[in-house]
């Protein structure tokens, strides 16, 4: 028999059992259906197609709590696979029945109902809106206060799934008073609960500045930092994600985070973990630095640049490298001091290499070019600029030349260094179209030096001298 | 007679002359009148012109003097105003210089205060350090807590095992499993067994055996993730008999006393 026939046969057998007289049979049938739907989405679709869902929704409203649990399990198993299946669950009136279940006494029933609602709300904004319209949010917030740890976890994860889509949904959750309760749960000992709580808070905070400020007002900050040393890596990642979402919004929030000592903690976190867990931490440093130059200086002084250099060299993945490169650009772009700090960490040749490397993705190349350009426009530290003279393509080279032409006319020591380190020689060797910006800069640089030196270093000068020697007649 | 003739001739001549002259005069009267009028009008005109020019000159003198007077007054006023403006410009320039210096000073001292920024940066570094230390402390504390919890759990597990495995206690005749003659000292389990008093087991219902309603089924993981330790009594729907306390028999007590004295002897 083909797979499809087997499935249809099974469904046909289970369906009358759901409506059986004996409650034990009903419950076991529901349990079986749930486990089948859980294991694959074709089975879940079969459950929907055979019109079993209305019966299941009927059993959700029954009196027996084990029956309710089993039926809620079935709804969850069906809804979790795809948005269309969740829509089917919603169309059968499943959401209202589940919200009724949430108001029961038994914690197991509440947990199953909350989990099912979370699976429905996870997929997209319209489904979340349906869940919110059914009045689930205040009941979920009450569930956060229940003593059972599992129920708290599931309630937090469902709230997180609801908030993540749009700001209006996040506002709906916040209006139900979720934030203070979530903030209290930060202090709990349970690891999985902390994961969900931080994920919920970061989903709320990411939409707008006012929401982030609401999260910050509750006093989440100093408490959240203790969780940065939690042994579980996902708790740490979610805390860093929360910090990143808050810091992204406004400069005052970044200031708040920095004043609480967040920078040191995040930099330690970056040092401890590896791989894609580093991503929120790296982005957080970039967002902090992007707001103002004093914050960027704070990042530099907390040894952020060296840590980012370590991340850049260690991570193999392109998207993490792109994020690191972006953060470095944000740090270095403000003033010559910042650019100097970035250059001293030997990052400019690395950025150039990433830009030139053919194997890096387009995103990485674009980001490294932008970062390099913005840092170069402020960099006046000439020893760091010289290595770039040798390998850079003309687009980068014109910025380097521009910087040289700005600094060299005023600083005689720098001119001397430039000549002795071979920079002037390299400049002469550069071919540039006359009239282009590059040629203008080269002329400006050449005008800083006496003509003999320029001629001495121009290519082919030894041949010119030899020619003169040949034509010379001693008197 | 001759005189009379001459007289008459003269008279006639006189008459003719008179007639001739008055004729002439009559003829010239108009011309002469006109000439006289012309001369008189011309003369009167000259008089008038002289008078007018005299008046003009005097009027010019008056106007000249008046204009000079008003112009001098105006110039005096203009000089005053120009002086005032010059003074005001000077003051304003000085005021601008003062304001420049003041604003530069104020900005350098308060708004973009270098030292405040420096101390802010140092403060941040210190705060980072202190936060790091605090976090390390908290982390250590939590680790210690977790370890102590773990140790307590292990200890209770061992004590429970000792409760259940009390029959493995070594007797006078026969050494138990944990008291092998080849060991220098008895195993810790042996010592625990000696300390612990035997308790009859309650009817324990491990979680993994029974699902709801007592129907045997495979492990139901999906329903609650509560961390129940398997040796704690489950409050689910399961039937168990309440445990009766062990009957305190004399023999049994003697055995226990002997076991404890034995352990004390061995320890000496």
TrEMBL record, chain A:
<dbReference type="GO" id="GO:0007288">
    <property type="term" value="P:sperm axoneme assembly"/>
</dbReference>
<dbReference type="InterPro" id="IPR011989">
    <property type="entry name" value="ARM-like"/>
</dbReference>
<dbReference type="Pfam" id="PF00514">
    <property type="entry name" value="Arm"/>
</dbReference>
<dbReference type="GO" id="GO:0015630">
    <property type="term" value="C:microtubule cytoskeleton"/>
</dbReference>
<feature type="repeat" description="ARM">
    <location>
        <begin position="177"/>
        <end position="219"/>
    </location>
</feature>
<dbReference type="GO" id="GO:0008017">
    <property type="term" value="F:microtubule binding"/>
</dbReference>
<dbReference type="InterPro" id="IPR000225">
    <property type="entry name" value="Armadillo"/>
</dbReference>
<dbReference type="GO" id="GO:0097228">
    <property type="term" value="C:sperm principal piece"/>
</dbReference>
<dbReference type="GO" id="GO:1990138">
    <property type="term" value="P:neuron projection extension"/>
</dbReference>
<dbReference type="InterPro" id="IPR016024">
    <property type="entry name" value="ARM-type_fold"/>
</dbReference>
<dbReference type="GO" id="GO:0046847">
    <property type="term" value="P:filopodium assembly"/>
</dbReference>
<protein>
    <submittedName>
        <fullName>Sperm associated antigen 6</fullName>
    </submittedName>
</protein>
<dbReference type="GO" id="GO:0005576">
    <property type="term" value="C:extracellular region"/>
</dbReference>
<dbReference type="GO" id="GO:0005930">
    <property type="term" value="C:axoneme"/>
</dbReference>
<dbReference type="GO" id="GO:0001669">
    <property type="term" value="C:acrosomal vesicle"/>
</dbReference>
<dbReference type="GO" id="GO:0003351">
    <property type="term" value="P:epithelial cilium movement involved in extracellular fluid movement"/>
</dbReference>
Automatic annotation (TrEMBL), chain B:
<dbReference type="InterPro" id="IPR000048">
    <property type="entry name" value="IQ_motif_EF-hand-BS"/>
</dbReference>
<keyword id="KW-0677">Repeat</keyword>
<dbReference type="InterPro" id="IPR027417">
    <property type="entry name" value="P-loop_NTPase"/>
</dbReference>
<dbReference type="Pfam" id="PF00612">
    <property type="entry name" value="IQ"/>
</dbReference>
<protein>
    <submittedName>
        <fullName>Spermatogenesis associated 17</fullName>
    </submittedName>
</protein>
<dbReference type="InterPro" id="IPR052318">
    <property type="entry name" value="CellDiv_DevSignal_Domain"/>
</dbReference>
């Amino acid at each position: 028999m083909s797979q499809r026939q087997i499935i249809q046969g099974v469904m046909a057998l289970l369906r009358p059992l759901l409506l059986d007289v004996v409650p034990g049979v009903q419950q076991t049938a529901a349990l079986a259906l749930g486990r089948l739907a859980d294991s694959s989405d074709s089975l879940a679709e079969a459950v929907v197609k055979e019109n079993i869902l209305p019966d299941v929704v009927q059993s959700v409203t029954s009196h027996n709590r084990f029956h309710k649990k089993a039926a809620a399990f079935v709804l969850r198993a069906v809804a979790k696979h795809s948005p269309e299946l969740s829509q089917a669950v919603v169309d059968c009136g499943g959401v209202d029945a589940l919200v009724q279940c949430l108001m029961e006494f038994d914690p197991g029933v509440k947990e199953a109902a909350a989990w099912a609602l979370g699976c429905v709300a996870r997929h997209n904004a319209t489904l979340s809106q349906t869940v919110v319209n059914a009045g689930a949010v205040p009941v979920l917030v009450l569930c956060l206060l229940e003593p059972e740890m599992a129920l708290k976890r599931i309630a937090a994860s469902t709230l997180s799934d609801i908030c993540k889509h749009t700001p209006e949904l996040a506002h709906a959750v916040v209006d139900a008073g979720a934030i203070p309760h979530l903030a209290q749960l930060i202090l709990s000992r349970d690891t999985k609960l902390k994961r969900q709580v931080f994920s919920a808070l970061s989903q709320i905070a990411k939409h707008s500045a006012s929401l982030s400020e609401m999260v910050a007002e509750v006093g989440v900050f100093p408490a959240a930092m203790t969780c940065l040393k939690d042994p579980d890596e996902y708790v740490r990642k979610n805390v860093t994600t929360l910090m990143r979402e808050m810091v992204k919004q406004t400069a005052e929030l970044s200031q708040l985070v920095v004043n609480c000592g967040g920078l040191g903690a995040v930099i330690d976190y970056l040092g401890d973990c590896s791989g894609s867990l580093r991503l929120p931490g790296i982005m957080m440093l970039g967002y902090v630095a992007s707001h103002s130059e004093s914050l960027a200086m704070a990042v530099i002084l907390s040894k952020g640049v060296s840590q980012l250099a370590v991340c850049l060299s260690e991570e193999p993945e392109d998207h993490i490298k792109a994020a690191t490169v972006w953060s470095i650009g944000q740090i270095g772009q403000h003033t010559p001091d910042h650019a100097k700090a970035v250059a001293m960490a030997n990052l400019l040749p690395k950025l150039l290499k990433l830009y030139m490397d053919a194997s890096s993705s387009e995103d990485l190349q674009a980001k490294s070019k932008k970062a390099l350009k913005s840092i170069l426009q402020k960099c006046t530290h000439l020893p760091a600029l010289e290595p770039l003279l040798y390998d850079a393509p003309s687009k980068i080279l014109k910025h380097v030349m521009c910087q040289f032409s700005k600094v060299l006319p005023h600083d005689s020591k720098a001119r001397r260094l430039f000549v002795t380190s071979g920079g002037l020689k390299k400049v002469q060797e550069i071919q540039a179209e006359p009239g282009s910006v590059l040629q203008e800069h080269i002329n400006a640089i050449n005008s800083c030096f006496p003509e003999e030196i320029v001629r001495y270093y121009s290519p082919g000068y030894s041949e010119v001298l030899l020619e003169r020697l040949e034509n010379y007649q001693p008197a | 007679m001759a005189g009379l003739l001459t007289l008459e001739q003269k008279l006639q001549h006189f008459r003719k002359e008179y007639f001739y002259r008055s004729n002439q005069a009559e003829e010239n009267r108009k011309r002469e009148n006109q000439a006289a009028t012309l001369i008189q009008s011309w003369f009167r005109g000259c008089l008038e012109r002289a008078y007018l020019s005299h008046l003009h000159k005097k009027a010019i003198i008056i106007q000249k003097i008046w204009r000079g007077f008003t112009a001098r007054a105006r110039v005096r006023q203009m000089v005053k105003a120009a002086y005032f403006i010059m003074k005001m410009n000077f003051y304003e320039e000085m005021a601008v210089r003062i304001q420049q210096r003041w604003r530069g000073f104020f900005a350098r001292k308060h708004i973009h205060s270098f030292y405040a920024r420096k101390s802010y940066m140092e403060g941040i570094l210190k705060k980072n350090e202190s936060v790091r230390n605090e976090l390390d402390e908290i982390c250590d504390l939590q680790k210690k807590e977790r370890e102590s919890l773990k140790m307590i759990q292990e200890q209770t597990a061992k004590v429970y095992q000792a409760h259940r495995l009390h029959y493995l206690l070594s007797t006078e005749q026969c050494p138990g499993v944990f008291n092998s003659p080849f060991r220098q000292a008895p195993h810790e389990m042996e010592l625990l067994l000696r300390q612990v008093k035997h308790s009859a087991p309650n009817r324990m219902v491990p979680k993994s055996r029974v699902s709801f309603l007592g129907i045997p089924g495979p492990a139901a993981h999906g329903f609650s993730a509560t961390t129940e330790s398997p040796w704690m009594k489950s409050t689910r729907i399961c039937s168990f008999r309440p445990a009766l306390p062990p009957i305190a028999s004399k023999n049994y007590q003697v055995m226990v006393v002997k076991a404890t004295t034995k352990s004390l002897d061995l320890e000496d």
